[in-house]
Specification:
Chain lengths: 114, 115
């Protein structure tokens, strides 16, 4: 149980285009979803926290107009990187949480912007 | 502010050796969670353990053991009789119990087990 999927697992796009990453909790309803970014050989940095039906809360320094988060249901959150540039190339990981605190992580999405 | 420090950036040992990964944390919260995760080359985080700040008992799971010392704000992880499959990046993390329940990760320790 407690499986979280991400789609796509890898994506390559051209600079200036937008990319959408999906995060799904497959066998449970997640009250909260988190989005992390991990640059090569670095740690995971929290980008934003989202609750179903509410606006996401972004961490300091994360541009909310660039990284659009939609949490439309208890099983799906999406992260859209708008007008992607090479410096946005990274490993994006989501996690889903149930009440009482347990974060289950997705397998990650590797984004490469050319 | 919450902070996790893993001072060891990289560790390399020979198979069958014991190895300890250090984790020191800072928090003003009186209650919190501590975690260890393993990240193999595939990138997917593998959950290893969660410890509540109330529970200072050490834990052993097979070749893995954890030493939680609240007095020194440390939560160290030991692998005994290491194996090549243990090679990965290991992250220590600090989690809130109240509020937004965010996780703060340490910088990670890259562990290489050589045959």
């Amino acid at each position: 149980g407690a499986v979280v999927s991400q789609h796509p697992s890898r994506v390559i796009c051209k600079s200036g285009t937008s990319v959408k990453i999906e995060c799904r909790s497959l066998d449970f309803q997640a009250t909260t979803m988190f989005w992390y970014r991990q640059f090569p050989k670095q740690s995971l940095m929290l980008m934003a926290t989202s609750n179903e039906g509410s606006k996401a809360t972004y961490e300091q320094g994360v541009e909310k107009d660039k990284f659009l988060i939609n949490h439309a249901s208890l099983t799906l959150s999406t992260l859209t990187v708008t007008s992607a540039h090479p410096e946005d190339s990274s490993f994006y990981i989501c996690s889903a949480s149930v009440a009482g605190f347990e974060q289950f992580f997705g397998p990650g999405t590797r984004l490469t912007v050319l | 502010a919450q902070k996790v420090t893993q001072a060891q950036t990289e560790i390399s040992v020979v198979e069958k050796e014991d190895v300890t990964l250090d984790c020191v944390y800072e928090t003003r919260d009186t209650t919190y969670y501590l975690f260890w995760y393993k990240q193999p080359p595939s990138g997917e985080l593998v959950f290893l353990i969660r410890r509540n700040s109330f529970d200072e008992q050490n834990e052993i799971s097979g070749r893995y053991s954890w030493n939680f010392q609240k007095s020194t704000s440390s939560f160290n992880f030991t692998i005994t009789a290491s194996q090549v499959v243990d090679s990965a990046v290991y992250f220590c993390a600090l989690g809130q119990i109240q509020g937004a329940q965010k996780l703060v990760f340490g910088q990670g320790t890259r562990l290489t087990i050589n045959p």
